Amino acid sequence: MRRTLTLAAAVVIALATTVFNTAPAFAHGYVNSPPSRQANCAQGRVSGCGNIIYEPQSVEGPKGLRSCHANLSQFAQLSDESKSWPAASVGSTVTFTWTFTARHATSNFEYYIGNNRVGVFSGNNQQPPQTVSHPVNLSGYSGRQKVLAIWNISDTANAFYSCVDVQIGGGGGNPTPTPTPTVTRTPTPTPTVTPTTPSGTWRAGTTYAVGNTVTYNGATYRCVQSHTAIAGWEPPNVPALWQRT
User: Fold this and answer.
1) What is the pTM of this model?
2) Which of 7, 25, 55, 134 sits at a 20 to 30 Å CA gap from 61?
C-alpha cells in the first residue's frame, strides 16, 4: 500500500513539474524605439544581459518603482550602469514607441529623467493598439540621459518598465563634458506664424502647423509643434504638441 502511494505521489510531482516547465511566459510590452536597454539586449547589442534577451517585454513590477529592472533579480543587469549601453542620438523632442505582445487596459504612460516626470499620456483605461508612440519634450536636458518609460496598467497594481539611453543633441557615446562657452546674443523679433491649416475641431489625420488653434471637448488649444495628428495624440494627451489657451 505504501509503495502504491509513493508511486502515485511521484507521478503527480512529475506531471506538475512538466506543466510548470512548459507553461509559456507571460508576454506584455516594452519600448523598442529608440531602443530600450532590453531591446538592445534582445538584439545582441549588449553582452551579458541574462534572461532578458528572451523576454524583453516582461519587465513587470508594482507601480511606483524607479528602476530599470522593476526590482526583479532575474533582470538586474538592466540596472547595471557599468555596462556599455548604446545611447540613441536624438533631438529635443523624442518619439518613444512601445511594442505590445499582450495589450492590457492602460491607465497611462509616464516618462522620467531622474525624479522628474517629463511626460505623461493617458491610456483612457482602454487596450492600446499593437504599437503606441508618444512625443516627449526633452528640451530642458542635454547630453547623455537615461529616460525611464513606464506603462501603468489600469486593472492591476502593476506596471511595465523600460529604460532608454539617449544622447540629446547628437553623438551616441559617452562624451567628456566640456565647458559651456558664454555667448552673447542680440534678441531678434519673434516672427508671426500664419496657420496653414484652418482652425476648428481637432481631427486625427489632419496636419497642423505652429499657431493653429483647435477645439477639443469644449476647450481651445494652440499648436506649438507642427505634426500630423493620429489617434492617441488628442490635445490634452500631448502637451509637447498643444498648449491650452
Assistant:
1) 0.60
2) 134
